[in-house]
């Protein structure tokens, strides 16, 4: 069973890596989702998989008998799933805004912050930025 | 004195929540934000005082004993970094009250700043790896939103790069944590440091490299730093200044914590990689800065270059090396934030951040030029400023440990840093303005001046009265290297409770 999980984690990581290297922002996002899921599965199977042995102390005993499912990794992935879900919701909103502001889905077009040159003029001095309507801002240099 | 550990978490959390509710009432929010950051400063100073007086402070949350529950630990390293981070955020909050536009304020700017601080403080104080991950995510989430509060082209573009690379770093961190739990069966740092020596060192090395990649991305180490210069210059100046002061330093702190407490079995391999990375980080950062023609971009690349110096001391793994790292961290957080804030003032006076369009600032504002020179020379390492002593420590530690090549790089990079700072000085302050009469904004509001002056004064003090800080960083380094004392502090707290819960989780 662990082997199966290991293969699954590897496949997810492989797909994630492939998608992260694509030029489309949407595929980048899907890659990040797969990466998160792969990681969660890795934690889940990290300390071994035990079926049908909940970590409960029997009525007539004082400790849990030896092979039992470790509850901690499951608590960890529960937290990790919640966090990664929140972050992904944010990332979806971000790529939507990017698309509205730049009108492109191609990561190769996102070079203005890396090229030599000036910082876009709007970032300089305090200006009122309309937050609600995000129709292709056009202020950038 | 357990409550002193909670204050640096409780104050930003409650302030963040309250300010989000009040975010439409600007004046009230300004007053509350400044008051809360002053209180936070006081609480961090109190924590450092207590730690210095009574040694390592530990609190077990919910009084669950150490290996099972989550502990908060404050040693000298975390308490002093906490104090200096809170200091620069105090300055930045005051600066922001006149800089940030009402649009961003209504979107909850100050609330996010305090949530960011909550994450940073939590990361400094936690004694549990998974808890560290959670604090990292709190910091990240707040920084994501702060970075793209506006919707300009540069901001969203920088945002995409920052977000995707940091999410990859988080995935690395989480995978490494999962594998480590599988290997050791615990995630408490003190417990891990006890268990790891008995585990196959090849597996531990693998996990060490995964942690190195995760924290390396966050700190901006050599092959992994590309997100930093691509995104740090895009948001408004106070946000850049805050990020420059806090975020990468949390990564460096995590590297120091993990590579002194956990991964010390095979230092030739793990710390050898760190040494090579640190030398290359210094070099590529400063070379990148030399090419740039924009103040913010130059400063962003210098963050990368300076990270190299901090990791250099860690890579040597000697008491002097770590002392130099701690000293460098403290000095750098103040100087770098101040440089970004001063860069903002230069932009305000000169109406641009491009060196080609600036000029004559010294004639227009002589005091601004002098205030710029203090952190700029400190960054380059000119005596008697704090950067000189920091660099001196780094070089001495390097020579003592026999890392001659990397030390030579460190010295050369210091010269190149000076060159790049002088470039800003010559182009922005000294040369004639390119077109006459472009100098705008005749009076700079007092709330923009005070933070800059305070941070410059701190830099001067750290240089002129370096002895106490030197003592502090030496003690912090000895404490960090003494894993037994750390374990004793964490486990000693509830040794009586531990007997009751023997058995339990494997």
What structural keywords apply?
heterodimer, A: 141 residues, mainly alpha, Helix Hairpins, 3 helices, elongated, disordered C terminus, B: 506 residues, two-stranded antiparallel sheet, 2% strand
What does this structure look like?
Chain A has 141 residues and is mainly α. Chain A has a domain at 2-51 and 68-115: Helix Hairpins (Orthogonal Bundle). Helices cover 52% and strands 0% of the residues of chain A. Chain A is built from 3 helices and no strands. In chain A, helix 1 (2-20) packs antiparallel against helix 2 and helix 2 (25-46) runs antiparallel to helix 3. Residues 121-141 of chain A have low confidence and may be disordered. Chain B is an all-alpha fold and 506 residues long. Chain B has a domain at 266-464. Chain B is 78% helix and 2% strand. In chain B, strands 1-2 form a two-stranded antiparallel ribbon. Chain B starts with a helix and ends in a 6-residue tail after the last helix. The interface between A and B is large, with 61 and 69 residues.
Entry summary:
The complex is a heterodimer of chains A (141) and B (506). Chain A is mainly α.
- Content-based structural category of chain A: mainly alpha
Oligomerization: heterodimer
The largest inter-chain interface, given as chain pair and residues per side, is: A-B, 61 and 69 residues
The biggest beta sheet of chain B reads: 2 strands, antiparallel
Assign an overall shape of chain A: elongated
Question: Layout of helices and strands, plus pairs?
Answer:
The complex is a heterodimer of chains A (141) and B (506).
Chain A: H1 2-20, H2 25-46, H3 71-102
Chain B: H1 3-21, H2 26-54, E1 57-60, E2 71-74, H3 76-99, H4 102-106, H5 109-125, H6 129-147, H7 153-184, H8 189-195, H9 201-219, H10 227-231, H11 237-261, H12 267-291, H13 295-316, H14 319-350, H15 361-364, H16 366-380, H17 386-401, H18 404-430, H19 446-464, H20 466-481, H21 483-492, H22 495-500
Antiparallel strand pairs in B: 1-2
